């Protein structure tokens, strides 16, 4: 997730309560209005049907940085079991290769040109399989290059990087293909990528080239991308303006899931404002034959200190009322209930509060 600092402000949650209530339906047994049926290019695995008292996360992003060599297998197993106990179905591995660093979180083939940094990917996949969860496998991330205009507006560079993504996908598929439910393209479109229609279309075509290639693999597995809506703040734009700018990118991307990052605790947007932006985004994704999901940013702390679950839930209710599947960025840094982890006590408290909100024991 692209993090913007120093932009959190008082969100006036109490003042937005009436607007949120207007968006939120009566949630009986966790039911919410179903999102409009969309026929995607590749079938998207069914998400959790766990009954909860309120809208719940159905998937969570996992970072290879979680694997630090201290007690990996036990920590991964405990966190994944807790995630599933809270109703989740899917694990989204954020990336397998760090392009800027030149390394990989799995034993990459020499032909890829990336050396092995750790073994997070195979560990995550094994744990997810044991827990009976779907895995969306991330490709190469470029956290520095993706904001470099000399690269992202350079068609030669984009073509070369698309080829790198394809090469990494081939290697991952050869090693883990039978365990992959879907792919994740971790080049998160930010405001700089969609600032003009031409630029948005160009970056969309890059995503489309990668998506089309991934769709050729066994059974046309679905493809996900996660645009970063809060990056609009640095340009002085609203959430709605960013969604409008995304239109050419979404149309050209050929992805099956647009997991739009909501910017919770990173902007001054209210739950109602975010819900309105997502409603607009859904019109675009429907037209592009893609599903719209919400990637809700869940920091343990922000500039104002701890971020309790009580500040999170109005956003879950507002987006859940639209029938948009909710995903968390990320479970292992906000509510993994393991006191041996850094900030484990605070995360355990968040996990307990979240399950209480869901009506789960």
Count of separate DSSP helical elements:
11
Secondary-structure content class = alpha/beta
Number of strands: 14
Taken as a percent bin, the fraction of beta residues is 5-15%
**Into which percent range does the helicity of residues fall?**
25-40%
User: SSE string, helix = H, strand = E?
Assistant: HEHEEEEHEEHHEHEHHEHEEEHEH
CATH topology: TIM Barrel
Average pLDDT, all residues = 87
Using the 3D structure, state the CATH architecture: Alpha-Beta Barrel
Largest sheet, described in full? Answer: 8 strands, parallel, barrel
Q: Characterize the overall form.
A: globular
Q: What is the radius of gyration computed over CA atoms, rounded to a whole number of angstroms?
A: 19 Å
Relevant CATH superfamily? Glycosidases
Ends apart, CA distance between termini: 30 Å
Read across the widest sheet, the strand sequence of neighbours is 1-2-6-8-9-10-11-14
Low-confidence stretches: 1-33
Number of domains: 1
Regarding quaternary structure, what we see is single chain
Protein name: DUF4434 domain-containing protein
Signal peptide: 1-36
InterPro entries: DUF4434 (IPR027849), GH (IPR017853)
Domain DUF4434: 74-298
Secondary-structure map with pairings?
Blueprint: H1 13-23, E1 57-62, H2 72-85, E2 90-93, E3 97-98, E4 103-104, E5 115-116, H3 120-131, E6 134-138, E7 140-141, H4 149-152, H5 155-176, E8 182-185, H6 197-214, E9 223-225, H7 239-245, H8 247-253, E10 257-261, H9 271-287, E11 291-297, E12 301-302, E13 305-306, H10 309-320, E14 326-329, H11 344-358
Parallel strand pairs: 1-2, 1-14, 2-6, 3-7, 4-5, 6-8, 8-9, 9-10, 10-11, 11-14
Antiparallel strand pairs: 3-4, 12-13
Helix pairs in contact: 1-10, 2-3, 5-6, 6-8, 7-9, 9-10
